[in-house]
Amino acid sequence: MSEEIITPTILIDADACPVKEETYKVAERYGLPVIVVANSYMRLPREQFIKQIVVSDGFDAADNWIAECANGFCIVITADILLAERCVKAGATVLAPTGRPFTENSIGSQVAVRAIMADLRAPAVGGLTGGPSPFSKADRSRFLQALDLAVTKLKRGTPRSPWPYYAVTPPPPSSPPPPRYEQESTGKSSDLPLLAEIISSIHDIWILFNLPMLLQH
After folding, report:
1. Which residues contact 50 (CB under 8 A, 6 or more apart)?
2. What torsion, rounded to 10 degrees, do the Cα atoms 191, 193, 198, 199 define?
3. Contacts of 68 by beta carbon, 8 Å cutoff, 6+ apart
4. pTM of this prediction?
5. Cα–Cα distance, 192 to 125 (Å, whole number)
6. What is the pLDDT of residues 21-72, one digit of tens each?
7. Within 13 Å and on the Cβ side, how many CA atoms surround 142?
8. Distances from the Cα of 185 to the Cαs of 93, 177, 182, 190, in angstroms?
């Protein structure tokens, strides 16, 4: 059974994920909980902010659990493009272990490329062999930078909502600027400051017209 996530949280598609330790370090630095989802039990650090979810070994059980939980408060770590597509549509921020982001603008082409590569690897067309390139130190470094940026944006900004609309309540409008003069209980501006300005202007005009006479004396 999935959970309702209402605070910034990192979800890890843990099976064969090479950046779990890096994720824990970033999460601890920012004070975010991490949910590790897998088909079988795995040894994890004994930290309060890390929670493990073991689902059944059914096909796509872990993917389904993550997709059902994903929302605008989540950062999902997965190399599965189809799972990434489901999470992006749910409003989550999604990163591959290489640091590559899955976004609304890119996920369509990424799904299409996956389908083409799957066809090319099919035995019926000669069976291209091999998988993705080996995970490198550069990939690990890019992931750390991408995750740090994603966490910063999530904590600083407003959680994303599912396509195609944004249902997040907008912030209240800023307070109006204070009135020029203090308001009386009736809601009308006080006349005292205006009267003082009039008296000051009359005084200045009197001085201007009487200055020559004053200088003769």
Report:
1. 24, 27, 33, 34, 36, 44
2. 110
3. 2
4. 0.67
5. 92
6. 999 999 999 999 999 999 999 999 999 999 999 998 788 899 999 999 999 9
7. 12
8. 51, 19, 10, 10
